[in-house]
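Narrative summary of target 7.
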Amino acid sequence: MKKWFFLVFGVCLVSLLTCSENEHSGAGGGSTHALVEYMPDDLFDWFESLPDANITLEDVILPNGMRASVFLEWYQNRLSKITVDDDDYQESDVNIKDNILGLMSDKGLFLTERSNFIYPDEGENKPAQRGLAYVWGGKQINVRNTGTTAGSSCTDSLYGLDCSGLIHQLFRHAGINLVTGRADDQRRVRVLSAALTARYPDARLIVEDLGQIPVDEFVSGDIIYWRMENATDAHHIGMVLNTGGDGTVIVHSRGGRNRCEFNRTDGGPEQKYLVRDGVPVASRGQTYGIVRINVADAWTLRLRCEGRNYDMLSTTISIPPYTDFEEYIFILAADYGGGPLELMFRLRRNSAEQTLDLRLYSLNAGRVDAALFHLDSDDTGYVDMDRVVSQPLTCVGQVRLVRGNQPATGLERRRLSEAAHGFCDEDKKCVTFGGR
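Modeled conformation, tokenized:
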């Protein structure tokens, strides 16, 4: 029995020690087993073929439809008005989620902007840098590191991160202590859920592994990972940014255990890439998956005029089950002709009757519309709204509720006006964007 054990052990050990660089080169943060991490060459080369994404926070669209820069400004302004005496204050789960995603987006763009990280030559094996490098096992940006993987031929000590180190930094910027381990750890639903619960124990935040969904369904803040189809562990990880433009952006750190020159070059590792034609399943049998932070009991609210075949706007709301509640949502949007709309939705839930009474106040158009929903299905279909006040009548409004958080559309991308800021500050409990 002992002879067979040592024979099998010896074969396994030799197998590990003789793995080729092609099989086990590249982005740190995950593996098909516990000892060796890699990014296959075809995935590495696919990223090499993509154009750089020259974007700022002004270009990033959050799942609620707002530009990340606008939402973060609005949210910080809102929080600054809350005092320690506001015992009855409770923040919207949707606002919490979008603040997390907004902060992660902000940090991702900062870390991938090479001009933010200029370092002088500090002597032997400590070269000058323009931008963060790829450092195997690197989790911090303020210290030089040669990497932590045995067998690497790279000797330079660099400021940089590996792929899981970048994701750790993004969550840390949002106040969430995500593990600094492998990519496969960070993409696990239970790991992300535990980190979110530790930071927001009362919020109805959930984590979903959506698998290989189409690129046009990606939203900002989605975590994207890659693994081999015959393996359970992910070997690379990054984050998605949605710009609402001609492509999706992937922010990640890409390098290799023995790709020494690439790891430190100006054109290399910490980058954001523009994906226009989908994320391919690579030739070596790779697949990708999307992990999304969402809100429990999330619904997508859609609004259109009767006779139109597309929505004027859609946005995410949160409808907690089994409780009576009243919430107000304030939204800046645009009509079909591009004119500005200032809308306020009042949501009033009757848990005993399982109904939702919705009122829509068009603040700059002088009209009020109402609809009553029975929440006994995942899709209510379009419901004609009753005109409570209509001056002037422009169209018959139709509204629809669909369970789940879908990408928002039709929302105005301009900065919030001073009037909107004043409205939001006047009554913190009844003016939120996308929730309670």
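Residues 298-426 form a domain with the Lipocalin fold (CATH 2.40.128).
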